[in-house]
Design brief:
By secondary structure, the chain is α/β, with parallel strands linked by helices. It is about 25% helix and about 20% strand. The chain has a six-stranded mixed beta sheet, with helices on both faces. A two-stranded antiparallel ribbon has the order 2-3. Strand 7, helix 5 (about 200-210) and strand 8 (about 215-220) form a beta-alpha-beta unit. Mean pLDDT is about 75; it is low at about 1-5, about 10-40 and about 100-105.
Length: about 250
């Protein structure tokens, strides 16, 4: 699995990271050749002392990326399976079962949903962030009757993304309560169904009664780059927690 290539993220648009590059600031275009005044590429570095430069050992394999477990949680029908499938670099493992008439009045996916299946165990996918970091994503089932599985799925996780439907905020309360009790860093990601939210982010934060230390972001579960950005916030939150725990 570690042989899977890192996803090819598109180049950042102007105004983003690319706007701060030398080519953008000084009017250079990529591949224009050496800088004026230099006849060719600079000579290789030579140590000033008499010692020879240390060469890396030949044939030594590169270190494998560090595995990081992230949970994708939330209520029923909020987009957890879609989130995992949108960014996974492998065919995601899903445990979808057809919804039956027995679920009428019990499982409510919302009026806007055309959902006909439900996750009965978990979703699994992975994505390589860079050569040193690889995320393993575990999507939890959303129904309350599958809550007994959450403790096992959360074991070893460094953080979680709680997916929220702004039109059905009540469905995400159990997930938020779970991670607050577990002390696991989490980020609330509001899934923009149809590209819009039913409430403003400030109103959602107030309704969920989450503190300012909990990041609240808007994302689109169908868009790969949008999911990536939300997961990077989860990583940042987990790193901040680890740094503070180390200093304590």
């Amino acid at each position: 699995m570690d042989s899977v290539r890192s996803p090819e993220w598109p180049v950042a648009p102007l105004g983003g990271v690319a706007a701060n590059s030398a080519a953008a600031r000084y009017g250079m275009s990529p591949g224009t050749g050496p800088i004026v005044g230099r006849a060719g590429p600079p000579p290789p570095y030579r140590p000033s002392s008499g010692t020879a430069a240390v060469q890396p050992p030949v044939g030594k394999p590169a270190a494998p990326p560090i595995p990081v477990k992230i949970l994708i949680a939330g209520g029923f029908g909020v987009g957890k399976t879609t989130t995992v499938g949108a960014i996974s670099e492998i065919a995601p493992l899903t445990t979808e079962a057809e919804m039956t008439s027995a679920g009428i009045g019990v499982d409510d996916p919302g009026a806007r949903s055309t959902k006909t299946t439900t996750t009965v165990a978990m979703d699994f996918g992975c994505v390589t962030i860079d050569r040193s970091l690889k995320l393993y994503l575990f999507g939890t089932p959303g129904q309350t009757r599958f809550g007994f599985m959450w403790d096992d799925l959360a074991r070893g996780a460094l953080g979680a993304l709680v997916v929220v439907d702004s039109a059905r905020l009540d469905d995400c309360f159990p997930a938020i309560d779970f991670f607050e009790r577990a002390g696991l860093p989490f980020v609330v990601g509001v899934n923009a169904f149809d590209g819009r939210l039913a409430l403003e982010l400030g109103e959602i934060r107030w309704a969920l009664a989450i503190g300012d230390h909990v990041p609240l972001v808007q994302f689109d579960a169908r868009d790969r780059l949008s999911v990536r950005d939300a997961l990077l916030v989860v990583l940042d939150r987990a790193l901040d927690r680890a740094t503070r725990d180390r200093r304590a």
